[in-house]
Amino acid sequence: MNKALSIIFFLFLSLNLYAQDFTFGSITHDDYEFDRKKLDSTANAIVLKEFGTASIQRDDNTGSLELIFEYHVKIKIYNKDGFKEANIIIPTYKDESREETISDLKASTFNYVDNNFIETVMDKKAVFTENRSKYTRLTKFTLPNLSEGSVIEYSYRLKSPNLFNFKTWEFQSNIPKVISEYLVYIPGIYNYNVSLRGFQKLTDQKVELSKECLRLSGIAIDCSKINYMMKNIPAFIEEDNMTAPSNFKSAIYFELSDVQNLNGSKTYYTKTWKDIDYELSSYKTLGDQMKRKDVFKDLIPTITKGSSTDLDKAKSIYNYIKKQIKWNNYYGKYSEDNIKKALENRSGNVADINLSLIAALSAAGLDAEAVILSTRDNGTVNKLYPVMSDFNYLIAKVNIADKSYLLDATEPLLPFGLLPLRCINDQGRVINLKKPSYWIDLKASQKTSSSYILTGKMTTDGKIIGTLTTHTMGYAAYSKRKEILRYNSPDEYVEKLDERLTRIKILNHQISNLDSVENSLTEKYDVEFSINDGTNKDQFYFSPFFINTISKNPFNLNVRTYPVDLGAASEERIVINVILPEKYQLLEKPKDLAIALPNAGGKYLLQTGMDENTISMNQVLQFNNAIYQPEEYPYLKEFYSKIIQNQKTELLLKKAN
């Protein structure tokens, strides 16, 4: 054998040895004794081996092509907190005519007892299915006979009619992995756009030709046999203030670009935005509904009566739609039926409501467009080429003079121009019936603002009696209004609030602008609370940080590989002024602080003091950005650490002689 052939043979052989599933039940001492310190000493469980394979095959019974996906994993459990990894959920998808199916499911738990590995096979009766929604079914099971140190293993086969997305493979999950390997066979007639997301990189990737892997109409078709491998993968830890984890987990995605037909023609699945614009503008459930000015033509004079400007008209129409059509809690970029029916039934999905808003704005002679987007929990959209399945939501855009307003009429408690936080996710695509579509940034139109002002007097027995006034705007006001309106009345809300506040007693209250969502929400409470037990009136400690105390750092990772996404810029101000009953000396107090984030990203200001017989505190917490990049994470972490440390200090007061 010559040298060149030897190398080719060796590469072929090594790939075949490399890309192989492992034998079910072949538990070794190395598996059982695997030292988690090699990956993560704090891990509750670790994936020892994970292997998957996917291919397109012809169903002999129906003659149709289907995706066959096989999955196999072996997991080491270290403690009781790791037991949850034995609760398995496999989602499958279905529609009116097609569905994914699970078969060949095997699952076992292995324990080391008396120098032997004892296998406990899961009873098939332990497997059950749940219809999560119209399109999603969940297969659920739990591995049996768990104990600390167990090794669990399961495998299954999935058949799917969905060839467009092939099968996504997530290398990264909530627990570390020693090795994760994915082998795919893609017929030469199929052309997929393949993308690797996430911070982690592939350890290895190998490609070879697999001859005659598929036969169609008597014609043999070769496949690309591709093996993707990643080793020593850290767990993906979710923290607050992030969009969909799928945006950041290391995973490989496939999207069908085109198919070479056997007759020589080609079918394109990845279309241009020009193609999409034409399709959407002519869809009965989208473009046609945007044109339905007739539904609102006779209503507009009444709706906009008294509106002197175009902005006033837009606000009147926005408020009308919010009141007339109640959201049924379903997302969607297409109308379920048509907007006339939604208006008659006074109920509809997101698209029904916002397409109605667009049609009504247009009927009033205003320039209205549609914006399709992906919500925060749905992930970001592909910008390189249109993938309509990426989008799951539709809002309205109205252009007045030189300003544009993004509107979503599904939430009655949001002011004009402020989108629900779920919509604040990168960019959306503006659909205009007369000109090409384009991208637009999805940003909060106003910052979240909260202020707390406490003025009061301290009595000789250590109580403070005073008035606490709060003003909130933006998402803070929305959340507070939503919370208040869960109760039958504001009085009932305050009653429950009083029960929750163990230290503070609410004596009286007044809530203003509860229904006036364009204005700040104002709450005024007459309060009474104790700062000491009265046993030592000559000297006592008093903490001024009893309003929105920051006691826990929201950022605890050593390294965060994805952005901190707050949704909107924010500002919180707290002012406290308490008059003392007698002359006191201030012996100790929290350090006055003025710290800032880099690049004017935010600041924290604190001043405490005593002027004659009045204790005062002024505090400002400000975040000027909605999004902070991973490289800014250490600064945020340190920022909060300094605030928390400082808020542990109290005022020490001593009666003056």
Number of helices: 11
Strand-residue proportion: 35-45%
CATH class bucket of the largest domain: Mainly Beta
Helical content class: 10-25%
CATH topology of the largest domain: the name is Immunoglobulin-like
The overall pLDDT, averaged over residues, is: 93
Structural class: alpha+beta
Largest sheet: 8 strands, mixed
Overall spatial form: globular
Number of strands: 35
Rg, please? Answer: 31 Å
Number of domains: 3
Describe this structure in words.
The chain has 657 residues and is an alpha+beta fold. The chain folds into 3 domains: 3-267, Immunoglobulin-like; 273-441, C8orf32 fold, CATH 3.10.620.30; 448-655, Sandwich (Jelly Rolls). 17% of the residues lie in helices and 40% in strands. It has 11 helices and 35 strands. Strand 6 (128-131) and strand 7 form a beta hairpin. Helix 6 runs antiparallel to helix 8 (350-363) and helix 7 crosses helix 8 (350-363). The chain starts with a helix and ends with a strand. Residues 1-19 form the signal peptide. Residues 299-380 form the Transglutaminase-like domain. Pfam families: Transglut_core. InterPro entries: Papain-like_cys_pep_sf, Transglutaminase-like. Keywords: Signal.
